[in-house]
Design a protein that fits this description.
The protein is of the alpha+beta class. It has one domain (14-73). Helices cover 30% and strands 19% of the residues. It has helices at residues 23-27, 56-74, and strands at residues 14-18, 34-38, 44-48. A 3-stranded antiparallel β-sheet has the order 1-2-3, with no helix packed on it. The radius of gyration is 14 Å and the shape is globular. The two termini are 20 Å apart.
């Protein structure tokens, strides 16, 4: 995804997908889960917010960049 923090292992482009919360996650007010996968080395976070060797802040930066990317892609054509 363009503008989203790269893979911490190989530097490759990553894909981020926002997942739905299951019942337990909603009941316990847990953070929003995401699926993150590198296109190059295929490192995957099946359900979480960051790769295991990343800091909390690195993961949060990627999620913020993902949310900004989605907002740009879903904005009407020609809008600011």
């Amino acid at each position: 995804m363009e503008g989203v923090r790269p893979c911490p292992y190989c530097g490759g482009e990553v894909e981020v997908i926002k997942l739905g919360k299951n019942t337990d996650e909603r009941m316990q007010n847990k953070p929003q889960p995401y699926r993150i996968q590198c296109y190059q080395c295929h490192a995957t976070v099946a359900r979480g917010q960051k790769f295991p060797h990343e800091s909390y802040w690195d993961g949060q930066e990627r999620i913020q960049q993902y949310e900004e990317y989605i907002a740009r892609m879903s904005a009407p054509y020609g809008s600011n």
